[in-house]
Amino acid sequence: MRGRGPCRRPVRRTRVAVVLLAASLLTACSDEQDSYCDALEGAQQELTDLADQAGAEGDGEAVNTLTPTLDILQGLREAAPDELGDEWDTLVFAYEALAEAVEEAGIDPAGLEAGDGAGDLPPEQRRELRSLASKLLSARVLAASQGIEDHAREVCDVEFDA
């Protein structure tokens, strides 16, 4: 008769409840992951195009790639799973700091990216902009970007160009 008393039933119900809770959490995580992967896949070409535009030389008209890139990155950060929160925060905060400094300076981001937008600024403001721009290439931001790209490739099967 051991194990058949009134205490046996609550333990069984508790185990069932725990299993059901765990299953629902895994499903929620899977849905979140799928949503994030879909968002990454949707943003992949846009980010590639923006990177190509930022690297283009001498095609006449300078294009603002900072603002649309930041918009996309902020959206991806919102969609990202918690495990990538630190990486996305690092990347987005670096872009936000530069975008805020550009806005405070009152210059067109397209001119800054073309190399001619900060010429009329005081030297200290130019140094600040250069410093913030260089943070996009800092070891910390590059490591965060690499973590995001690794996850995109390994989990979402999304490959970003370098």
* Gyration radius from CA atoms, angstroms: 23 Å
Strand content: under 5%
Number of strands: 0
The string of secondary-structure elements, in order, is HHHHHH
Q: Averaging pLDDT over every residue, what do you get?
A: 78
Kindly, what is the distance between the CA atoms of the first and last residues, rounded to a whole number of angstroms? 67 Å
The largest pleated sheet is described as:
none
Total count of domains: 1
Give the proportion of residues in helices: over 70%
Number of helices: 6
List low-pLDDT spans.
4-9, 19-29
| Mass-distribution shape | elongated
Estimated structural class: mainly alpha
Structure description:
- The chain is 73% helix and 0% strand.
- It has six helices and no strands.
- It is elongated.
- Helix 1 (8-55) runs antiparallel to helix 2, helix 2 (66-79) packs antiparallel against helix 3 and helix 3 crosses helix 6.
- It has helices at 8-55, 66-79, 85-105, 109-114, 123-135, 139-155.
- The model is unreliable at 4-9 and 19-29 (pLDDT under 50).
- The chain has one domain (8-155).
- With 162 residues, the protein is mostly helical.
